[in-house]
Write a structure and sequence with these properties.
This protein has 92 residues and is mostly helical. The protein has helices at residues 2-23, 34-56, 61-77; strands at residues 30-31, 80-81.
Length: 92
């Protein structure tokens, strides 16, 4: 059962990262690297699924996949770089 949860979470991560690259409007910012974004989604979703499976135990597949989706979205949001903002220096 955990094999299917792992496979499902990796597919969720790929879908989220590809969707973020494809449909995220320019006004929200840009991702630092396309390769990093496509790699972070599945890894984050797999980590979220393994964490949820260890906490919830077997037999909670929908909840495990929901947690993997949440972790993937949260970690992908950390890769966003703001677009037209002026950067402030720490010494200024």
């Amino acid at each position: 059962m955990i094999l299917w949860e792992a496979l499902g979470s990796v597919l969720i991560g790929l879908a989220v990262s590809y969707g973020a690259l494809r449909w995220l409007p320019e006004r929200y910012g840009q991702f630092r690297s396309r390769t990093l974004t496509l790699a972070t989604g599945p890894v984050a979703a797999l980590f979220g699924a393994l964490l949820a499976h260890s906490v919830l135990g077997p037999g909670h597949t929908p909840a495990t996949l929901a947690v993997s989706l949440g972790v993937a979205v949260a970690l992908l949001s950390l890769l966003l770089r703001q677009g037209d903002r002026a950067r402030r220096s720490a010494t200024a």
